[in-house]
Structure to design on (486 residues):
């Protein structure tokens, strides 16, 4: 199963189109679900550092496209939904609303990976209009007698519940109170619908919808209400009433996605039994687009639960950086860098350097930088470490009316005295996840850089055109010495 994933996932990523001028509903669904898959991979699997950065960048790019470029118009689909209920294009309006929920789910994941907060005016309108507009429209349908729209209405309500739950479980705190209030109201209403014999029958007759309902009910009771698993089982309809083994191939894919949350061990056992069937359909080209993506999400979950999640280099395609800052020279920003070969570094000098802690080393580097805003450099050298930082220091520089950032990860002699290992490579590559072409990385290390790490960095500079420089050990000591910082 692992080899299948390693072969199939990069090919799917290669099919992600990030340059379309105008996205259709179908392409929004594809991009959004691809972002969910990428997030699953980042969370669940142990992948190579540079490929982690590539996937993070793809996730952020998809978020930017769906949230900003597509112009959500402040979630106007929620605002106008009550009017849509009385119109002639309700089916299309359902699709738009569900795509807007998908966009928020991608945004939540992007903010978690990127450690940034929600809080702009569009986010405000999501949490405002989901209740005043969307929920009012849903109740108009399910409290009415238009039974032909019960299935899409229930699905969309469950999608709203899912989105609110994922936000509550996220790192963001700004809308937690509003989200929990809405989730409680939506879930209570959904449960009341379940107790309506007509709607209950509609749900039970649609097996995918039934399992989606059970998943949201389970997550709400277990993770929000903190009820014990034994108590929840008494409240849920028996899972065996949803005999997933007899479902058709595409229904199985979505059913397994829901089953992951409710009963991981049952999911692992049943999915393993069906794996060869899925693989055969993939090879015949009979599972495509969003269903293909969702199948891979199930594969990721299965790998996490049953196999070593360590994944070797997959060959994830990513376009080379085209805006290479060839103009960048270290001597233009690090005073007298070009004089380093003339400086004699003694054992005493090296002893001093290796004794500096991270904070001291940052301050000394800030003191010797030139052609930058000194105030920003001093502020960056003193900022506390935290989840929101891109690097230990980020210094903006301008060139030809464009802004770039010198991003500096630091490793002091207190952390590594002999060799800096390859395992810290992600910290060097991380700025490219956030800043893309605008990042210029200068890795500052008191200790020598191991040959494996040095080779890894050189390979990424060649393959991806990432602008990375290293100032380490005796070279760093000489730079500090010539600037009277040692």
């Amino acid at each position: 199963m692992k080899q299948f994933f390693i072969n199939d996932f990069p090919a799917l990523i290669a099919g992600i189109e990030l340059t379309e001028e105008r996205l259709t509903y179908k392409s929004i669904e594809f991009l959004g679900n691809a972002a969910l898959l990428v997030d699953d991979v980042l969370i669940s699997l142990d992948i190579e550092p540079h490929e982690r950065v590539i996937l993070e960048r793809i996730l952020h790019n998809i978020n930017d496209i769906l949230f900003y470029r597509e112009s959500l118009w402040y979630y106007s689909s929620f605002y106008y939904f009550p009017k849509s209920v009385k119109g002639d294009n309700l089916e299309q309006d359902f699709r738009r609303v569900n795509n807007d929920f998908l966009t928020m789910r991608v945004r939540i994941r992007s903010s978690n990976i990127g450690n940034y907060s929600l809080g702009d005016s569009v986010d405000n309108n999501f949490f405002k209009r989901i209740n005043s507009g969307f929920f009012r429209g849903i109740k108009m349908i399910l409290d009415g007698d238009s039974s032909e729209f019960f299935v899409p209405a229930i699905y969309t309500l469950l999608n709203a519940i899912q989105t609110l739950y994922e936000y509550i479980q996220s790192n963001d705190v700004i809308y937690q109170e509003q989200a929990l209030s809405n989730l409680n109201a939506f879930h209570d209403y959904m449960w009341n619908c379940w107790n309506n014999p007509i709607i209950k029958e509609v749900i039970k007759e649609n097996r995918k919808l039934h399992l989606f309902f059970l998943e949201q009910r389970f997550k709400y009771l277990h993770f929000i209400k903190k009820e014990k698993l034994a108590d929840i089982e008494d409240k849920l309809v028996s899972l065996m009433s949803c005999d997933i083994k007899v479902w058709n191939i595409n229904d199985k894919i979505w059913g397994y996605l829901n089953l992951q949350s409710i009963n991981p061990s049952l999911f692992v056992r049943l999915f393993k039994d069906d794996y060869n069937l899925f693989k055969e359909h993939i090879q015949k080209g009979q599972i495509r687009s969003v269903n293909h993506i969702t199948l891979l999400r199930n594969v990721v979950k299965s790998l996490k639960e049953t196999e070593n999640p360590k994944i070797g280099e997959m060959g994830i395609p990513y376009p080379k950086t085209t805006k290479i800052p060839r103009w960048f020279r270290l001597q233009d920003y690090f005073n007298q860098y070009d004089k380093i070969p003339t400086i004699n570094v003694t054992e005493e000098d090296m002893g001093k350097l290796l004794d500096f802690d991270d904070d001291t080393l940052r301050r000394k580097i800030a003191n010797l930088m030139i052609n930058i805003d000194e105030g920003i450099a001093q502020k960056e050298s003193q900022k506390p470490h935290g989840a929101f930082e891109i690097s230990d220091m980020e210094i903006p520089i301008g060139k030809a009316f464009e802004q770039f950032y010198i991003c500096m990860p630091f490793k002091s002699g207190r952390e590594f005295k002999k060799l800096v290992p390859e395992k810290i490579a992600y910290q060097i590559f991380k700025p490219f996840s956030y800043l893309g072409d605008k990042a210029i990385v200068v890795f500052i290390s008191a200790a020598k850089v191991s040959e494996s790490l040095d080779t890894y960095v050189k390979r990424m500079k060649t393959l991806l055109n990432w602008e990375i420089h290293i100032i380490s050990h005796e070279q760093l000591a000489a730079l500090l010495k010539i600037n009277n910082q040692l």
In short: Strands lie at 393-399, 402-408, 410-411, 419-420, 439-445, 448-449, 468-472. The CA atoms of residues 331 and 338 lie 6 Å apart.
